[in-house]
Amino acid sequence: MQYPEISIIIPVYNREKLISETLDSILAQSFKNWECIIVDDHSTDNTANEIAPYLKDYRFKFYRRPDHRNKGANTCRNFGLEKSNGSFVHWFDSDDLAHPDCLSIAFALLSKGKIDFCHYKRSVFRGEFDKQYKKYSSAIDPVKVDVANIEDIILNKLSFNTCNVIWKKSSLKDLRFNEDIIYADEWEYYTRLILHGLKGISISNELFFGRKHVDSTTYEFYHDHQGRRKSKIVASLILMNELKSKQKFSKILYDHFFQLGYFLRSEEIIKYLMDLKQIGSFQRRFYLFCVRNYDLIKPILRFKSKIT
């Protein structure tokens, strides 16, 4: 039996209208030695029926999240990883699309055995996707990425989305997605992987396309979905602890998280940062007043960096 080189893992929930287009983009890959593991988070629509025809191709495998495990995309991603057989792992979202040469270009770099991941560009679209793909013969402008780039990754200057990176499975070791987070999950997990020493390559090829729509988690976050916002706070606290333990907490990152704490109205984030800097009682009262009255003082606050 030939094992697949790349395991594609897709968590899915109520995507009957979008999942087929995503799976078609996998079938269209010029690189053929893959498996696609689809993990259904107990959908209540016809998602399973839409997936059924694809299962005639042995490379597609369909599972339902075990009842005893927590609901959520991250549980499905971790479960899919447990079921995977490939040497490399590519996490997809169930509404996104891949360039036909996505896997082949990334695999050409990963198969050399010297890197833990290959990162590439991702663009976004709304509505119908114009499948006029750019033609690439090889990777463009490969540059090294490691812990030295951690500021750019956290500040989203070097954007790590769920789907725009393929990982060497053995490099992940026992590190997994946090199953208690429902937003900013890849931001927390991928940053944590790099803080733990993983090194890779970033290329300029545009190889993935993210769909924007009203059911997306990003849309919900910026429209005050409290669960998504709480997850961003939890993810931030985890990352701040990692940065502290790895001694990578720069002034730029301190300022960024302080601003993020205001944006999220999070006393937890602000208190963590004040403890880190041992800020005095008068300033502590002032900063907490600002958080609690953010909507009133927002017009006069001048942020130094972009909130992401």
How are the SSEs ordered, and which strands pair?
Elements lengths: L5 E7 L6 H9 L6 E7 L6 H5 L8 E5 L8 H11 L4 E4 L5 E2 L3 H9 L6 E9 L17 E3 L4 H5 L10 E4 H4 L12 H11 L4 E12 L5 H5 L4 H20 L5 H13 L3 H11 L3 H12 L1 H4 L11
Parallel strand pairs: 1-2, 1-4, 2-3, 6-9
Antiparallel strand pairs: 4-8, 5-9, 6-8, 7-9
Helix pairs in contact: 7-9, 10-11, 11-12
Radius of gyration: 20 Å
- What composes the largest sheet? 9 strands, mixed
SSE order, as H and E?
EHEHEHEEHEEHEHHEHHHHHH
**Gross CATH architecture of the largest domain:** Alpha-Beta Complex
Beta-strand content estimate: 15-25%
CATH homology superfamily name of the largest domain: Spore Coat Polysaccharide Biosynthesis Protein SpsA, Chain A
What average pLDDT do the residues reach?
91
Helix content: 25-40%
Cα-to-Cα separation, first versus last residue? 45 Å
User: What structural class should be given to the helix and strand makeup?
Assistant: alpha/beta
The CATH class of the largest domain: Alpha Beta
Looking at the structure, what is the overall shape? Answer: globular
The structural domain count equals 2
What is the fold-level CATH name, i.e. the topology of the largest domain? Spore Coat Polysaccharide Biosynthesis Protein SpsA, Chain A
Number of DSSP-assigned strands: 9
Put simply, the count of helices is 13
Pfam families: Glycos_transf_2
Protein name: Glycosyltransferase family 2 protein
InterPro entries: Glyco_trans_2-like, Glycosyltransf_2, Nucleotide-diphossugar_trans
Domain Glycosyltransferase 2-like: 7-136
